[in-house]
Amino acid sequence: MDIYVDSANIEEIKKAKELGLADGVTTNPSLLAKENGRVTEILKDICKEISGPVHAEVLSLDFEGIVKEGKELAKISDNIVIKIPMIKEGLKAVRILKAEGIDTNVTLIFSAGQAILAAKAGATYVCPFLGRLDDISNDGLELLGVIRSIFVNNPDLDTRIVAASIRTPIHVVELSTMGVDILTVPSKVLSQLEKHPLTDIGIEQFAKDAEKFKL
Ligand code: E4P
Fold first, then answer.
1. Are 123 and 105 spatial neighbours (Cβ–Cβ below 8 Å)?
2. Domain around 86
3. Residue 127 sits in a domain of what CATH number?
4. Residues 101-128: tens digit of each pLDDT
5. How many structural domains compose the chain?
6. What angle is formed at CA 52 by the lines to CA 49 and CA 58, rounded to 5 degrees?
7. N or C: which end of the chain has fewer CB within 10 A?
8. Cα 113 to middle of ligand 1, angstroms
């Protein structure tokens, strides 16, 4: 199982890397908009820090534009993966980029049918957004389970799942239990995973008791 950092912030990415929690990075336009500087420079800095895949999203929505932008982004570094929204024009672009040896991630996946189409188009990754489904009272984890079963039962579909829009530690635990390939996790959730009140109480108690003996 790989854990990616869902962030475009270099400091957050470095902190996750120190804990072995940065097998890759996913960015999107909303995450990049929170940072200062030119997108190309931000992505270059992330790629210098992270040897695993760094996912960067195209803004174009037409076939030619997506292919052009994808090729430009791919020049930034060998480990750039091109994120493409789940639209017909995007699926056409996935095929072309794949033929040129460029890895793609079809993003904004909200149904199993969309995941199948993306995999058939040759996407290296699909990116189902579970938190946004939960937001509208659908079951995001259930969708992840269905997509995983489809890929396990059809090994000819050579596409990895990047579970995205992860909002809570419970999402991380459930997805890990299911055996989802990759979880992209925001740094807030990574910090939440580390904490437990009983750990704090235990440390305090041990420190107090240690005052009673000599080393
Ligand atoms: C990552 O690839 C996705 O863009 C991201 O996880 C979306 O998260 P959000 O739904 O919390 O914005």
1. yes
2. 2-210
3. 3.20.20.70
4. 999 999 999 999 999 999 999 999 999 9
5. 1
6. 90
7. C
8. 20
pLDDT digits (tens, 9 = 90+) for 35-67: 999 999 999 999 999 999 999 999 999 999 999
pLDDT tens, 196-206?
999 999 999 99
Contacts of the segment 156-161: beta carbons below 8 A, 24+ positions apart: 157/116, 157/119, 157/120, 158/119, 159/115, 159/118, 159/119, 159/123, 159/124, 159/125, 159/126, 160/124, 160/125, 160/126, 161/115, 161/125, 161/126, 161/128
Ligand 1, pocket residues at CB < 6 Å: 6, 26, 28, 107, 127, 129, 131-132, 164-165, 184
Is 83 tagged catalytic?
Answer: yes
Q: Is residue 7 part of a domain?
A: yes
Question: Residue 203 and residue 125: Cα distance in Å, rounded?
Answer: 41
Structure tokens at 83: 């994120």
Structure tokens at 118: 């993306």
The single residue of 14, 15, 48, 83 carrying the catalytic annotation is 83
Whether 215 is in a domain gets the answer no
14 within domain boundaries: yes
